[in-house]
Amino acid sequence: MTTPFFAGQHYPVIVVGGGQAGLSASYWLCRHDIDHLVLEKHQAFHAWKNERWDSFSLVTPNWQCRLPGHPYDGDDPDGFMVKDQIVAWMERFRAAFSPPLREGVTVQEVTPRSGGGYRVRTDRGALSADRVIMAVSVYHQPKVPPCADALPDHLTQLDASAYRNPDALPEGPVLVVGTGQSGCQIAEDLHLAGREVHLAVGPAPRVSRFYRGRDVVAWLDDMGHYRIPVREHLSEDQVKAKANHYVTGRDGGRDIDLRRFALEGMRLYGRLEDLEGGRILFGHDLRENLDNADATNARIKASIDEHIARHNIDAPAEAPYRPVWKPAPDHPTRLDLDATGITTVIWCIGYAPDFSWIKVPAAFDDSGYPKHERGVTASPGLYFLGLPWQHTWGSGRIYAIAEDAEYVVDHLADELCASGPGWARSHNTTQNCRP
Description:
- The protein is α/β, with parallel strands linked by helices.
- 25% of the residues lie in helices and 20% in strands.
- The protein has ten helices and 23 strands.
- The strands form seven sheets. Strands 1, 2, 5, 6, 7, 8 and 23 form a seven-stranded mixed β-sheet that branches. The protein has a five-stranded parallel β-sheet with strand order 10-19-11-12-15. A three-stranded antiparallel β-sheet has the order 16-17-18.
- Helix 1 (20-31) crosses helix 10.
- The two termini are 36 Å apart.
């Protein structure tokens, strides 16, 4: 039985989540000399350490990695860190200021207190706080379609967070469902290992790795795309459904062209729709999904062309992309599991948020998604950090987390100052962070 070690302690601020967002908040709280505690269910940077496959690499160049006071510190700014390098870089950030972090503590419920602030119930006892920062992302529950329950018991099923490498799977063909960043990169990982891969292609967009002599990310950064506020891009509903463009940083970075994979033997299908008598049924949208992904890529390239022309930049010309493969009109829309011998299904169709343990209705919209303005909710003293599109396109990347965290903590500090003296270092505990 877990021994409680919290006995009603009160803090000016509690941060829930010990990933890059939560520890970025802690960094700025230390800078403001605000007493606080960071609670982490597992260990710091758990998802990076335990929920990424072995060949995982960033899809954005290393120079975009910026945590508060801790930019990328390696010798390959235009490269793409792999998993162990990412974790080591983040651990150096943690070591630089030693945040007041308690690992292995599960927050079970957060509720408002009648006199203001919040009660934070954990599996190690209850605490309270004047302010709470939720830094727990939105990737909580893997999305799996209802038909998954009807798949044969002998099939191995897992989601992207549980995939490690091709050798860890049973022998035989693999069905990957979903073509966001994870689905495409996992399909590539299996394909490069010589596995027979069947891929259900969804509507996710794609982008080229390089264009006209530079990484596309570098062009878009110059053009200010990662700093444009979300409200100038998307509506609230679009924010929740927005898929990331697929590309890879593997082996120095390259395009992910599903059409080329098809030429090399990967079996492509439309979006998975249902299961019928041992056969998986796919939509008739494969051609449309491939064409739309290419069209998005073409629009991004056209915007770069306009930027180059407007600023009279000397950049090499590049021929337009030409599709190397197209599905035939009678392309298969059914997959017989027994006939193909598929042994594994990997679900890569995203994750759903679960904030049901946060009993603060004012902080959420009707769908249960955080309702906020740059992380500040309508419930006084409750904040969110690390959400996709929290403020800009860069918010969903390590690129903008320092700025987002600084904004939230500045807002929080202003509120605490307005509440009167006595909030800083008000709790007589060891606050050992070193800003």
